[in-house]
Design a protein that fits this description.
Elements: H1 2-29, H2 32-57, H3 59-77, E1 85-88, E2 91-94, E3 97-101, H4 109-121, H5 126-157, H6 162-189, H7 192-205
Helix pairs in contact: 2-3, 2-4, 3-5, 4-5, 4-6, 5-6
C-alpha cells in the first residue's frame, strides 16, 4: 500500500512538472504583446473581483474611504472664497444645496486598479514600480477630488450640464491621465528600451 501510494504520488509530481514545463515552453512561444495583454487582463479582472467583494463587505471601503473623498472635496472647495462646502458621509453640500453623492463608481478605485495592473505587469525595477504606484495612487486620488469638487460646482450653477460632464468629459480626463502615466512609465522607467538597444547593437555587430 505505501509503495502504491508512493508510485501514485511520483506519477502525479512527474506529470505536474511536465505540465509546468509545457506551460512555460508554450508561454515563451507566445507573442510578448499578447502575453502582456493576457497577464494584464487576468490581473485586472482578479483585482476587480476582490475589490467588488471587499466593497460590498467592508465598511472601510464602502463608508470610510468614500467619506475621505467627500471630506477632501469639502476641504478643497472651501479653499475658494464664496463657497461653503459641507460633507456628510457620501453627500457633499455646497452653499446649503445638496450637490453630489459619491457612490462606488466615483471612488476611482477601479481606475487605480487599471493603472496598477499595467505597471505591475510591464517591465521595470521593483523599487521604481513601488514609488510610481504610490505616487500614481495619490495623483489619481487628487484628480478625483478635483473631479468631485468640479461636479459639485456644476451641480450648483449649471445643473443641466451635470450628466454629460459626469458621464463623458470628466471620465475622459481621468482616463487620459492614466494613459499619460502609462506613457511616462514606458518611456522613462521601463526596461524594454535598453534591451531593444542591446539587440540592435548585436545585429549591427554581425
Amino acid at each position: 500500500m505505501p509503495r502504491l501510494f508512493g508510485a501514485i504520488l511520483f506519477l502525479f509530481i512527474s506529470k505536474s512538472s511536465l505540465t509546468l514545463r509545457q506551460i512555460k515552453k508554450s508561454m515563451k512561444s507566445i507573442n510578448p504583446i499578447v502575453l502582456f495583454l493576457l497577464k494584464f487582463i487576468v490581473l485586472y479582472e482578479v483585482l476587480i473581483l476582490i475589490y467588488n467583494y471587499f466593497f460590498d463587505n467592508s465598511l472601510w471601503l464602502s463608508r470610510d474611504y468614500i467619506d475621505f473623498i467627500t471630506d477632501s472635496s469639502e476641504a478643497f472647495i472651501n479653499l475658494f472664497p464664496g463657497f461653503n462646502a459641507i460633507s456628510t458621509e457620501a453627500y457633499l453640500t455646497i452653499n446649503n444645496k445638496l450637490c453630489v453623492f459619491v457612490g462606488k463608481g466615483c471612488s476611482a478605485i477601479e481606475v487605480f486598479i487599471l493603472f496598477f495592473s499595467f505597471i505591475v505587469v510591464y517591465s521595470g525595477k521593483l523599487k521604481n514600480k513601488l514609488i510610481f504606484i504610490f505616487g500614481g495612487f495619490w495623483l489619481i486620488f487628487f484628480i478625483n477630488v478635483i473631479r468631485v469638487s468640479a461636479l459639485g460646482y456644476i451641480a450648483l450653477y449649471y445643473p443641466a450640464y451635470l450628466d454629460i460632464n459626469h458621464k463623458y468629459y470628466f471620465t475622459a480626463i481621468v482616463y487620459s491621465i492614466v494613459f499619460l502615466l502609462w506613457y511616462i512609465w514606458v518611456k522613462f522607467y521601463s526596461e524594454d528600451k535598453p534591451q531593444q538597444n542591446e539587440l540592435v547593437q548585436e545585429e549591427l555587430s554581425y
